Amino acid sequence: MEIIYIDRLFLTNLLADYLLLLCAARLCCLHLKRLRYFLAALLGAGYAAAVFLPGLSFLAAPGWKLGFGALLGLIAYGRERRALGCTGVFLVLSAALGGALWALELSFGPLRLNGKLLVLCFLLAYGTLRLIFGSAAGRSDKRKVSVQIRLLGRSCAFTAIADSGNCLSDPLTGAAVAVACPHALAPLFGPAQPLLEIRDPVAFLSAAGAYPELKGRLRLIPFSALGGGGMLPAFRPDWLLIEGKEDRYRLIAISPEAAGPGFEGIV
């Protein structure tokens, strides 16, 4: 008879559900809300443990599994505009993880699930879906939007591309990050405009120390792209409008690569 340790079962499912919720959010390019994902994962772990309690085995039925999976997604993404779509991505990613485990069992026989195996299967499932969703994002239509920014009493306005494949976010807060070219942001910097000609992000941040009004305003944001990765200087504006709608949380990163025919930024 197989012995199931309820504490290990709970913790393993807590980790799995949290990773699945987090990565579904990344695939959907959401502002990360880790506390909501953790609370949803707690419910999922509790459900997984409850299935093995006396009198609750009926919870293992497919309908209950699907229902609780949908509930987890709605708890995590209920405040998002694409809540149902994000929940669908979470369910598909969960199914892909289950498929990866099943494939490994077919190849190597019955498996004993542990942290290392869980992470391996998770990476395989996530990587596969990342290729699928990444390709879809790359083919998505891009439209132009108006952007207005205010910083330190100065303002600027420019046209940006609304790119659904832009998943750049602040690793500290999970806030989304828009990217603008130095020329578009020049009016915001006033006497500090010479900073915008510095291409090295570390040198940019170091030189900004000479301008007291920028103290505590700038930080570096890591990014990755097809051509490589690196760091971008970024700041939180005092006020930001995108198509006339205020966005209180988005950061603005600075990159000369954010400009093209008819636009000077990417959001």
How would you characterize this protein structure?
The strands form two sheets. A five-stranded mixed beta sheet has the order 4-5-8-3-9. A four-stranded antiparallel beta sheet has the order 2-1-6-7. It contains seven helices and nine strands, in the order αααααβββααββββββ. The protein has helices at 6-27, 34-50, 62-77, 83-108, 115-139, 182-189, 201-207; strands at 143-151, 154-162, 177-180, 218-225, 228-235, 239-242, 245-246, 251-254, 265-266. Helix 1 (6-27) runs parallel beside helix 5 (115-139), helix 3 (62-77) packs across helix 4 and helix 4 packs across helix 5 (115-139). The model is unreliable at 135-141 (pLDDT under 50). By secondary structure, the protein is of the alpha+beta class. Strand 1 (143-151) and strand 2 (154-162) form a beta hairpin.
Key structural traits:
45% helix, 267 residues, five-stranded mixed sheet, 19% strand, elongated, four-stranded antiparallel sheet, alpha+beta
Concise account of the structure shown:
The chain is of the alpha+beta class. The chain is 45% helix and 19% strand.
Tally of helical segments: 7
| Helicity level | 40-55%
Topology order in helix (H) and strand (E) letters: HHHHHEEEHHEEEEEE
Mind telling me the C-alpha Rg? 22 Å
What would the principal axes of the Cα set say about the shape? elongated
Tell me the strand percentage band.
15-25%
How would a crystallographer describe the biggest sheet? Answer: 5 strands, mixed
Q: Whole-Å distance between the termini? A: 56 Å
Total number of β-strand segments? Answer: 9
Indicate the mean pLDDT: 83
Q: Uncertain regions: pLDDT < 50 for 5+ in a row?
A: 135-141
Q: What class, by secondary structure content?
A: alpha+beta
Q: Order of strands in the sheet with the most strands?
A: 4-5-8-3-9
